[in-house]
Amino acid sequence: MPTNLKLKDEYEIPRERMVTLLREHYKIADGNVLRVMSEVPRHLFVPEALKSQAYKDNALPIAANQTISQPFIVARMTELLELAPESKVLEIGAGSGYQTAILARLANKVFAIERVPQLAAEAQERLQKLGIQNVTLRCGDGTNGWETYAPFDGILVAAGSPTIPEPLVNQLEIGGRLVIPIGQDQKSQNLIRVIRMPQGFQTENFGACAFVPLIGEHGWRNNQ
After folding, report:
1. What is the pLDDT at residue 8?
2. What are φ and ψ of residue 171, in 5° steps?
3. How do beta strands 67-68 and 60-61 pair?
């Protein structure tokens, strides 16, 4: 697990307001998720011009026409993984690295894949500056997963796919959870959790959401 992050900054109050909203309005119940959301400096993961908006209740644009997810979505997806301190997690679509940092504070090891080289490099730099050392990040097609390090206790996909990528469910540990937005429309999905059982898979639907498209061999072939 990484060393403690520096909490004292000018965004401490808005960060606490964000966590209060997650707990009281959105009913995020996992105390560890709330604690970590109060610790990770979200403003360091958004463009300089948007830092004042970092803790507001909405997604924000980042480079390469991608987004940093709404805090509620980050918290809900993380909560649905039900991570333990010894968990090994795969993240697809690292983006700015914010969700990666959240996962790294909760799990033993995080493997993250980002398709866009610029985003992968910037996320790596941010994580290093924060002293987060339990993340292995690479640039590539996340829809194929990361067979070398499988199986995973949790897989989080931060982009919307038309179907559930078969390589990802196959790389789940028994009892492992895949959380992924699924929808035939590139602009709207449902948040789906797949749990690998000893015999087969259990699928749950947690309602509507909206993510950028998951581009890759087992996702959308392009973002048109």
Report:
1. 61
2. -95, 10
3. antiparallel
Domains of the chain: residue spans and CATH: 12-209 (3.40.50.150)
- What's the rounded Cα separation, in Å, for the pair 36 and 214? 26
- Backbone φ and ψ for 38, nearest 5 degrees, come out as -80, -15
Q: Which amino acid belongs to residue 173?
A: E
Considering the entire predicted model, what is its pTM?
A: 0.93
pLDDT in tens, 144-177: 999 999 999 999 999 999 999 999 999 999 999 9
Cis peptide before 151 (omega within 30 of 0): yes
- pLDDT category, 117, cuts 50, 70, 90? very high
Active site residues: 69
